[in-house]
Give the backbone structure.
Amino acid sequence: MSEPRVRSPLVTVQRWALTGIFVILGVAALHLGRSLLLPIAVAALFALLLAKPVRWLNRRGIAIGIAAGLVVLGSVGIFASGVYLLAAPAASWMERAPRTISVAQVRIRKLMRPFTKLKQTAEKVEQITQSGPQQAEVTVANPDLMARLSGTTMGFLGGFVTVVFLTYFLLAEGDRFREKVGEFLHRRHHSEVQDAMRDMQAQMSTYLFTATAINTFVGLLTFGVLTLIGMPNPALWGVLAGILNFIPYLGAIATMVVIGLAGIVSFDTTSQPLLAVGAFFVINLVEANIVTPMLMGRRLPLNPVAIFLGFLFWGWVWGIPGAVLAVPLTVMIQVIAARVPSLQPLGVVLDS
């Protein structure tokens, strides 16, 4: 009988060193290739999100290419309609942002008058506020800022077109693209790879569809409550609440801060801004502790530490878009890691 082969410590060190180098290079590639990889990631997530309605139309006799085109065009139409309806209020708030901050500072200072220890700080804020409008005019007139904004707009439009077309192609390919990927990854176990990819696609599609539905409900409920309170432009704040709710932890806090500032500027009394913030706090509390656990169940296979670390990582790699996509991307990694034997330790770390 042959003696069992003992792995040399040097071989183990080399293997871990190669793995570490690969991880570092992968993270650097994600960071440096943001302009290319971010639209691809967004398109892949949208394809998973819209896969259910495409399959629904396909089962009713509509060709997969036509069904994908109808769903993508419908989604683009809804997005364009929302941008058209919210463009004017958003532009108005952006134009009045310096004055809004100044008014908010003045009113917050009035609320803090009973606290004598903050009197000196309030007087300094008043001096800064008095010079605010002049600084705002200089900032708006800055050609460098306008150039940066123009470049950002063009970059967004280019990324948007890329996402739309790539989403359509991924949906139109349907199962054929998955079969090609499965055959490329492992030809010997083609059927097993196909089953695993089909399960991953179904799980991710269900999760994204459920999360989007929950956040849409949060946005609609925020819109309704702020309308009842009398907040100006409630649709703008409802859409903002729905989008920011994709960001774990900080999204709800940012929404409350924005609604609070808007309420302070919009209302003369203190009770209405507090009522608006309190109403959204209740909505978020019910959503986070009752609605999401009840509807998600096991569809969110992440523990809180993994969610927070994923938020930090993707936010660092891709900025604000990465923070918005942090949870779906981390869920995708966990689902893939749980299916790949060599990545199962990572799946266990991320698993709830």
Notes: The radius of gyration is 25 Å. The mean pLDDT is 76.
